[in-house]
Amino acid sequence: MIEAIDMSPRFDGKTFVLPIRVYYEDTDAGGVVYYANYLKFAERARTEMLRLLGIENSILQDRHGLAFVVRHIEVEYLSPARLDDLVEVYLELIRVGGASLEGAQAIRKDGVDLIRMTIRLGCMKLGGGPGRLPDDIRKRLKAFEMDSENDNDNRDSNNE
Questions:
Q1: For residue 160, pLDDT beyond 60
Q2: N or C: which end of the chain has fewer CB within 10 A?
């Protein structure tokens, strides 16, 4: 009998985790995940983290006239994911500012980092220009900010 795998997004402490199955559409002709698709996986994790916190992008746009935009991203490709792999996308909020977020993301298979990335998001007004995060949203995000040496030590131990 085949065991069901829990594909639900979740928080593990302050770290958000999104399981993703690699489909044919995610791979190149060799069955390896195409490099740009890792960015899509990371975007899905950021979106699902917000959703789990009760912050949907559509509501952020409709009610507040705001959207998150990627200002900077660095990606380190360590090892490929392949067709049918089950990977997990990890997201840790490093800094939550008034109009920006900084995070660390990793894509792992069986606990081993395949991809590591750092990202800086800006909060923008839909009409253009920077926008400030509403206080209630900022407080929800701030509650998951990595705020101690122990939090950072735990992240580093997974990367060795």
A1: no
A2: N
